[in-house]
Amino acid sequence: MKAAVWMGKKDVRVEEMPDPVLLSPKDVIVQVSSTAICGSDLHLYNGHVPTMKEYDILGHEFMGEVVEVGADVKQLKIGDRVIVPFPIACGCCHFCSFGMTSACDNTNPNAGQQEESYSVPAAGIYGYSHLFGGYDGGQAEYARVPFADANAFKVPKGIPDEKLLFLTDAYPTGFQAADQAGIAREFTVAIWGGGPVGQFAAMSARLLGAKQIIMVDHVTARLDLAERLSGAERLDFEKDTEDSDVVEQIKMRTGGRGADVCIDAVGMEGLGHGAGAIVDHAKTILRMENDRPVAFRQAIMACRKMGVVSFPGVYAGLADSIPLGQAMNKGLRFATGQTSVHRYLPKLLDYILRGDVDPSQIISHNVPLDRAPEMYDLFARRDGGCTKVVLKPGERSAA
Amino acid sequence: MAHESTVAYSATIYKPRQEVYAFWRNWPNLPRFARHLSRVEDIGGDRTRWTAEGPQGPVVWEAETTADVPGERIAWRSVGHADVPNHGEVLFKDAPMDRGTEVVVRLAYDIPYGIVGELAARATGNHPEAEIGEAVRRFKAILECGEIPTIEGQSSNRRRGDNAPGDPSPKVGVR
Fold this sequence. Notes:
- The complex is a heterodimer of chains A (about 400) and B (about 180).
- Chain A has about 400 residues and is an alpha/beta fold.
- In chain A, about 30% of the residues lie in helices and about 25% in strands.
- Chain A has 14 helices and 18 strands.
- The two termini of chain A are about 20 Å apart.
- Chain B contains 5 helices and 7 strands, in the order E-H-H-E-E-E-E-E-E-H-H-H.
- Chain B has about 180 residues and is an alpha+beta fold.
- The model of chain B is unreliable at about 165-175 (pLDDT under 50).
- Chains A and B meet through strand 4 and helix 3 of A and helix 4 and helix 5 of B.
């Protein structure tokens, strides 16, 4: 089969790979109809996540049709149309039993290494480095889904893939970011990063009753999108902050209080202005720091007293100069984590079927899988027109 | 001279205490989760016979069960001539808030040739701290999931040729 594989920093190729096979009677094999590149795949692409190996198959957002079923699978049959949440759940441990699937105790076969880094293991993730289990991903013609009864979620036929695909990660991640912040009616929510997660966080915040949503980004197309999809106010950190900084701008727009909820949907590769950002950049190059928490710092500083900072943005290691004193004295609460996608699926599928949310609106590129290398490059350069790339393994580029 | 080394690991297993105890107490189960063991036999009385794969071939020793309190504690100690004299125990207790069973495993063994022997063992990839964690996590996965999650045999492993030795090579082909 064809698959997008990681071959080194900024080196993604589409290679001929052996087909996946059932490795356990609880597995199924899915023929992938659509798969997407996630912003967090860029952390792998840019070489910020260690423990990648050559020929690792990328991709943790994928859906398709079940084509092979293990003997112990009870809920699925050949021909079922499924979406596959990015964290791999065993379905049996205490965390999975209570819907906290991203905290699964069992699915990371490389748990020992993760214990050394994070003190406890968490769920395996498809195509997301050997620290997260080394599972092959879904940017491929076929993918193996372990513990399939827990991890392949049946979806109805007759709705395009494009409306359902982001249920695997970006949509629930944006939703969890808003949901875990306890948004109440008339809240002001400031969001850093107008990528897919930020856009879904904005749409979700609106659905949960937020009155004012401020999107912080510097890419015009992303600010436009947030304005159009969620009625968000724009805060362009390159254009709107000549006389003040982002934090000052947010205070000016909220009667000096700051935002009730701040969502950092940027994570460890944040861009920004000023001395802090320059020092971060130097430190990451020198490997003294691997996370550049520009957005996280601003989120703390722009949050009102007793507010909530929610950070779906991915951080991997250590971060410097976090204003903890400010966070403590303002009485902030933090909410974060990889998304327990499984628990949100019935509710979010319902929003889509009712027409409350149309996730396909964030797609900027919809191309055959063999164009993956070019799409990684485009997305990594944060090219203005590139918000979300969907790859089609079943299609071929015109020669 | 010999040098005693100890390792310990703790985990919470989402299964009732008697079930967790019973699985460990059934000695032949041990090689299913302790990778260095190839066989453990119950040879009657309080005796068990253990076989591990060493660099020079199989290593065999016998142990006596020194404590067996159902649902609470199992302990054992190697007897007679053992290449690596060792003793160990497993403690079981109810975890709070219906989270299953807390397990504590402790192992102690005399490394031949003291510190030098221990360093040599590490140099050959035998890290007791890592192995005990691996074994307890596998014990937990078998009890909770009925299997040990794996990636051995998946597409990229076959492409790289990095399946574990002895791992059955799944069929390779184009669908």
